[in-house]
C-alpha cells in the first residue's frame, strides 16, 4: 500500500512541475524556432566573416614613399625634380594575420590609393632633392569568425590589424626632401 502512495505522489509531483509556463520574454529568438528551423533553416547557415574587435581601436599610420628619382643640383644653379622624374604608385591595404576578407570597418578608407606624379620640388645649388608622398592609413583591429542570422557573430582565432589607405589620402600629401633622399620607390612606415 505504501508503494502505491509513493508512485501516486511522484506522478503528482511531475505533473505539477512540468506544467509551469515560461514567459515568452525569457525565451530567446533562436529557441522560439522549431527544431526543423534550427537544423535546416537560416539558423543552420553559417558563413565566414571578419568583424571589428570592439570599436577597432582605429589609429593613423603613415607610409612614406619616394616618388621621384634623386636629383643633385650643380654647385652654381638650383634645380627641380618633377613629373618627368616621378612615378605614380598604387598603394594597397596591408594585413597582419589572416582575416577572411578586407573590410572597411565603417571607416573612410579604401583598398588602394594611387599617388599620382604631378609634383615638383626645387633645390638650391649643390642640393640633393626628391619628391615623397605621405600616404595616410587607418589601422584597425579585426577578427575572423562565423556568422548566422540567428545567433550573430562567433569569433575564432586571434586578431589581425588591417591598414587601409584613407579615402582621398586624407591626412597625407606630398612633400619635398632635400639632402636625405633615398631611391625611387623606397618606402618606410611611421606608426
TrEMBL record:
Signal peptide: 1-19
Record key words, sorted: Signal
Superkingdom of the source species: Eukaryota
Official protein name in the record: Ig-like domain-containing protein
Organism the protein comes from: Pseudovirgaria hyperparasitica
Amino acid at each position: 500500500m505504501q508503494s502505491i502512495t509513493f508512485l501516486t505522489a511522484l506522478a503528482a509531483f511531475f505533473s505539477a512541475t512540468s506544467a509551469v509556463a515560461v514567459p515568452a520574454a525569457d525565451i530567446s529568438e533562436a529557441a522560439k524556432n522549431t527544431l526543423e528551423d534550427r537544423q535546416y533553416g537560416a539558423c543552420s547557415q553559417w558563413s565566414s566573416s571578419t568583424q571589428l574587435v570592439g570599436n577597432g581601436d582605429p589609429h593613423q599610420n603613415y607610409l612614406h614613399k619616394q616618388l621621384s628619382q634623386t636629383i643633385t643640383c650643380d654647385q652654381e644653379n638650383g634645380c627641380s625634380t618633377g613629373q618627368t622624374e616621378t612615378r605614380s604608385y598604387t598603394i594597397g591595404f596591408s594585413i597582419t594575420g589572416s582575416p577572411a576578407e578586407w573590410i572597411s570597418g565603417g571607416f573612410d578608407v579604401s583598398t588602394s590609393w594611387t599617388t599620382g606624379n604631378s609634383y615638383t620640388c626645387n633645390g638650391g645649388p649643390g642640393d640633393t632633392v626628391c619628391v615623397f608622398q605621405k600616404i595616410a592609413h587607418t589601422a584597425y583591429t579585426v577578427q575572423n569568425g562565423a556568422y548566422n542570422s540567428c545567433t550573430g557573430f562567433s569569433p575564432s582565432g586571434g586578431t589581425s590589424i588591417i591598414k587601409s589607405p584613407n579615402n582621398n589620402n586624407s591626412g597625407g600629401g606630398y612633400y619635398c626632401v632635400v639632402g636625405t633622399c633615398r631611391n625611387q620607390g623606397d618606402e618606410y612606415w611611421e606608426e
